[in-house]
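Annotated sample (chain length 313).
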Amino acid sequence: MEWVNETLVTEFVFLGFSSLAELQWLLFVVFLPLYLFTLATDAIIISTIVLDRALHTPMYFFLAILSCSEICYTFVIVPKMLVDLLAQKKTISFLGCAIQMFTFLFLGCSHSFLLAAMGYDRYVAICDPLHYTVLMGHGVCMRLVAAACACGFTVAQIVTFLVFRLPFHSSNRLHHFFCDISPVLKLATHHSHLIQMVIFMLGVFVLVIPLLLILVSYIHIISAILKISSSIGRYKAFSTCASHLTVVTVHYGCASFIYLRPKSSYSSSQDTLISVSYTILTPLFNPMIYSLRNKEFKSALQRVVGQPLCAVN
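Output written by the structure step:
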């Protein structure tokens, strides 16, 4: 009988925006254009980097990969959220929930390691520019991306397995708008402190270790920049890192708040608000931070857009 009970939950009901029932149409009207704009800007970034040979550098290669990752990451969560804002029954199957958790963890964890790879790229570009093309060749960049994806895949696989092997037969009402770790764990009938500790340590591995690598890179970068005699040279060197630093601060700040705090301080309403910021707002601002304010990228975009126009004329 115990086995039957443990298979009772076959779907979860999302309650992420239940307290805003009267405003869900308004949320849909706000979130849909933001999501479409995010997709459009990421698509423009990827297309421009692919089509303009001047952007075929390691920095823009990583940026294209990051934009692809963000398109996939938001696609896993936002379309389902938009549909649920208009639906009476906001449900997801047990298997669908597991797939959603695995996919967004895989992409989110890979994102963390990609940011560390981009930090290393900036370190080599500024601290060892003479050997930059050798140290950051295409093969090295591909291996760094492959390593980031492998780490993300492994962590996502372990966490998803640990969470969904637990028994779920007390409640299926999920106080969130997607299948995140803490809200799903809260519904498990029982789980050991060992599982919580393993998931927490994996969170440390994904968030703290890449952040420490980025900090070490920037300690060397700042030291190298301070040695530049020209103020214009210092400004140009630091401007190539400012966008990366901004995205790193937002990404690791939000993710650490969600995944590296004690379970006792969990708040479903607070987590929903933070989750909206990193599933909708952060992907919206990242393209603008990285590229649309970048003179080199804007020049490349003008060249790419100008080519078809010249052909027509």
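Annotation: The beta strands are 11-14, 91-93, 173-174.
Annotation: The mean pLDDT is 86.
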